[in-house]
Design a protein that fits this description.
The complex is a heterotrimer. Chain A is of the alpha/beta class. Chain A is 40% helix and 24% strand. Classes of the chains: A alpha/beta, B mainly alpha, C mainly alpha.
């Protein structure tokens, strides 16, 4: 197995809160890897560190053999790591198709310098964008403003535009959160399809059924540290995992 | 030379107190409502004209008149917030509220022109022309009184913020509007009252401003608002302590520069603003980074 | 689809023809003046919008470009002793001045966002106004005069009308080209979520700055033409805070970020204002009216004329379509739209 993405002892504190404490994970090439853990265990922070939105206090991020620690989000994306957000970050006042074209410009950076008044998106870009919209099932909305999409459709749009550049790995932050069951199934199917074609996934998700059904490998984060990792069946029965969830449940009660 | 410098520092500190009062109102409004009240400058002038009208037509003392003008400005503030700021919704709320307050500013300016004309006026009272001899130079009484009043009012605002339940709601709303709403704070009421308080202090600030010797007319609000904005951005938006420090510091620097370069002393404000923002875009005392939208 | 394009082309052609005939049909000086100022504000509003409307960075400092374009041409014309129509040779200079000021202005101001950006533009505006008051070369409070143009009143009005008409057509064309271009798409992506756009490879700073420079250059040019027309400039008239408010009002009223919105905004508001000025004959009262108008627009037409009308039209069309669907003509492409759960009821097909 080749490791495609790896974090090594990543730590990050916000004020007095240690969000990440030596988090080490590995994502195998061609896998769908799940990242789970109770609320506040540092999952999104780890995503932010990997994709350049936060700079770690210590530790390193490797993409293949390349150290990408502290890269800007733009360089991380250009390197081939796509990412979606928990609350989706789409461009609400652009049309769905225009959202796709914004993401497409990475492929032809020279073009935008030479002719700034060229029509947005060449024929090839548009064709590819429409293909991906078909693939995610929202092609019917191509000319609608993205802000008019339902929450689940936004997730699909964000997934689609991240795919425009054919990233080697896609990080999904709660793809199933707040989405209706039909769309959850659609999203799961699309992930499986893409994975079959060679795209690697790292997924943060609270919907256990979704994670256990989809992922071949799962890492469990608690208090910013990886407490367990392995195939779903092993992780599911790991006492440390139960501890992490139940322990934090009692913490929550104490907070109140 | 030495006396001149001391005098400049004194003037700066005394003037800074009054500016601090006006700037605190502005930064308080920003913190709670997330809007920049462009109308603050012309409201100061409105406050000054209210004092002017009371003293010229009804012969009411400037300080006694504040008992009328401060509540009046409070009511005007609450009404403006209720009518023009509160209804704004949606993703462009920020820019629209800014433009709304700008529109309010030019309406007030127009009304002042209609009522009082374009002539420059000053406020008069015995303590405006009388001075005390202190440390080798004369200081006008009004500047001392004004400074003392500004200190008292700023202290009162601090007490309100940190010693009362209502102040707690204000601070909670400043930190996180949604969370404040969730814990049962009536955010609309807090917003209206904060806007009222922020505007009410302009009545006091305007009176001292109008009495400090520089003649004003309805147009003077622009110069004032640009300085106040420079101050609160310099301080870091929403930072009350920062606004106090920045006001006193900048007024002192300006009045010291004024000794050598009277024409360009005003430029100090804007130049400082530009330089500070080049180095630290969040202002000197700003905590949060320029938030992503 | 084709019918829409043809209809639109006919509309543009008709509007251009009407605009071209206007000064021949109406030789009344007051009407010509109104025509000139309306077109001038179209230029200013469309230029403002192609930066502020597209990027969402609301500039209240565009008077800097307007005043500087006017002042610099005035100073150069005076120092070179240019007389009469020779001053028009300075128009490229006004364009360059606007562009050159926009670079450092933008590099400073565009580092910050939202409120702070607006305030910086206001601060820089006041620095320029202060310079106009206090520098020796600007003539201080006495201001500057432009060279005398030995034209009869009607010829004067007509020539200026056509000059500013050409500029207006060019500005609208540039705005339209940008809106549909890759560059325009990047600007609008910055408006929606600058950080996300940057992470997707939009080089935000150069993109924003380019729009700012184009916008500033056109505004500088407009300032110079305005100065030649009214022949005198004062610090308060060249660097006028009301200028930015008026221009922003026009863009907001018509529809921020659209091509036709600022055009329509200026086309409606300027004649109304001109008429009110003429009727009331009281600058202060008309200032109050402007402010009140602005508040009304913000409160009751917050997204502007063009998007609101476009939305009404598309919902009307959708209703007609769904009626057709009920009649049994169901086609695969016409999936009934899911109801919006987005921030605010942003409708489909907002006009461009």
């Amino acid at each position: 197995m080749t490791v495609l993405l790896r974090t090594e002892g990543v730590s990050k504190a916000f004020g007095g809160v240690q969000a990440l404490d030596g988090a080490t994970i590995e994502v195998a090439q061609g896998s769908i890897t799940g990242l789970i853990g109770p609320n506040g265990s540092g999952k999104t922070t780890l995503f932010n560190v990997i994709t350049g939105y936060e700079r770690p206090d210590s530790g390193a991020v490797y993409f293949g053999d390349r150290a990408i620690t502290g890269y800007s989000p733009q360089r991380v994306f250009a390197a081939g790591i796509g990412r979606t957000f928990q609350l989706t970050r789409i461009f609400g006042r652009l049309t769905v198709l225009e959202n796709m074209l914004i993401a497409a410009q990475h492929k032809s950076p020279g073009h935008q310098v030479r002719n700034p008044l060229a029509r947005a998106g060449g024929a090839a870009d548009r064709r590819r964008a429409m293909e991906l919209l078909e693939f995610t099932g929202i092609a019917g909305h191509a000319s609608a403003l993205a802000g008019t999409l339902s929450y689940g459709q936004r997730k699909l749009l964000e997934l689609a535009y991240v795919l425009v550049t054919d990233p080697a790995i896609v990080l999904l932050d709660e793809p199933a959160g707040g989405v209706n069951p039909t769309l959850i199934n659609l999203i799961g199917d699309r992930i499986t399809d893409l994975n079959a074609n060679g795209t690697t996934f790292l997924i943060v998700e609270h919907n256990m059924e979704f994670v256990m059904g989809l992922c071949q490998h799962i890492a469990v984060l608690d208090y910013g540290t990886v407490v367990a990792a392995g195939p779903p069946d092993i992780v599911r029965n790991d006492p440390r995992v139960l501890d992490a969830y139940l322990g934090s449940a009692t913490d929550d009660e104490q907070d109140e | 030379m030495g006396t001149e410098l001391t005098r400049a520092v004194f003037n700066g500190v005394l003037g800074g107190g009054v500016y601090a009062l006006m700037a605190v109102g502005l930064t308080l409004i920003f913190g709670v409502l997330d809007i920049i009240n462009i109308a603050q400058g012309v409201m100061v002038i409105l406050g000054a004209y209210l004092s002017y009208a009371l003293s010229v037509h009804l012969h009411i003392d400037l300080f006694a008149g504040l008992l009328v003008t401060v509540p009046a400005m409070f009511v005007i503030g609450v009404a403006i917030q209720w009518a023009f700021i509160r209804p704004l919704r949606g993703s462009d709320r920020t820019s629209m509220s800014l433009l709304a307050s700008y529109a309010v500013a030019i309406i007030i300016e127009g009304v002042l022109y209609l009522l009082f004309g374009a002539n420059f006026v000053t406020l008069n009272a015995s303590y405006v022309t009388h001075s005390v001899y202190l440390l080798g130079f004369y200081l006008p009484d009004i500047e001392i009184y004004g400074f003392v009043m500004a200190v008292v009012l700023v202290a009162a605002i601090y007490a309100l913020l940190y010693r009362t339940r209502f102040g707690k709601s204000i601070r909670a709303t400043m930190q996180d509007r949604t969370a404040a709403m969730l814990v049962g704070i009536d955010v609309n009421r807090v917003s209206a009252l904060t806007y009222g308080i922020g505007v009410a202090v302009t009545a006091a600030g305007g009176m001292v401003f109008g009495a400090s010797g520089i003649p004003f007319n309805p147009n003077s609000g622009y110069d004032l608002i640009s300085r106040l904005l420079a101050l609160i951005i310099l301080a870091g938006l929403g930072s009350i302590g920062g606004a106090l420090a920045a006001a006193v510091f900048m007024l002192t620097v300006e009045s010291v520069v004024d000794i050598w370069q009277p024409t360009w002393a005003v430029l100090v404000f804007y130049a400082a603003l530009v330089i500070v923002l080049l180095v630290k875009p969040t202002g000197l005392f700003g905590r949060q980074a320029a938030r992503a939208q | 689809m084709n019918r829409v394009v043809i209809l639109r082309a006919c509309l543009v052609g008709a509007a251009l023809a009407a605009a071209a005939i206007f000064p021949i049909a109406f030789t009344n000086q007051l009407v010509l003046t109104m025509g000139f100022f309306t077109l001038l504000y179209i230029v200013a509003a469309v230029a403002w919008n192609l930066f502020s409307g597209y990027t969402g960075y609301i500039s209240l400092g565009h008077a800097v470009f307007f005043g500087s374009g006017a002042y610099v041409t005035g100073i150069v014309a005076r120092d070179l002793h240019l007389g009469g129509a020779a001053e028009f040779a300075l128009l490229p200079l006004a364009l360059a001045v606007g562009a050159l000021i926009a670079v450092p202005f933008g590099l400073i101001a565009l580092r910050v966002r939202r409120h702070t950006f607006v305030v910086i533009t206001i601060a820089i505006f006041f620095i320029f106004q202060l310079m106009a008051f206090d520098l020796k070369t600007t003539g201080g409070t006495a201001g500057l005069y432009s060279p005398f143009l030995p034209w009869g009143p009607v010829v004067f009005g007509q020539r200026f009308y056509y000059i500013v008409l050409a500029l207006a057509v060019g500005t609208v064309a540039i705005s339209w080209l940008i809106r549909g271009s890759r560059f325009g798409l990047q600007l609008r992506a910055i408006r929606d979520d600058e950080d996300r756009a940057a992470s997707l490879g939009v080089r935000a700073m150069p993109v924003k700055l380019t729009a700012f420079v184009i916008s500033g250059a056109i505004t500088g040019l407009a300032g110079a033409i305005w100065f030649f027309y009214i022949s005198q400039i004062l610090p308060g008239s060249g660097f006028d805070p009301i200028f930015d408010l008026t221009v922003a009002l026009m863009a907001f009223f018509g529809g921020l970020g659209t091509v036709s919105g600022p055009l329509l905004g200026a086309l409606i508001i300027e004649p109304v204002q001109y008429y009110l000025n003429f009727q009331i004959n009281n600058g202060y009262l008309s200032q109050i009216v402007l402010g009140a108008l602005f508040l009304l627009v913000i409160l009751f037409l917050p997204r502007g004329l063009v998007p609101t009308v476009g939305e009404k039209a598309s919902s009307w069309r959708a209703r007609r379509e769904s009626r057709a669907l009920d009649a049994g003509a169901i086609s695969a492409g016409q999936v009934v739209r899911e109801q919006a759960s987005g921030p605010g009821p942003i409708a489909k097909g907002t006009a461009r």
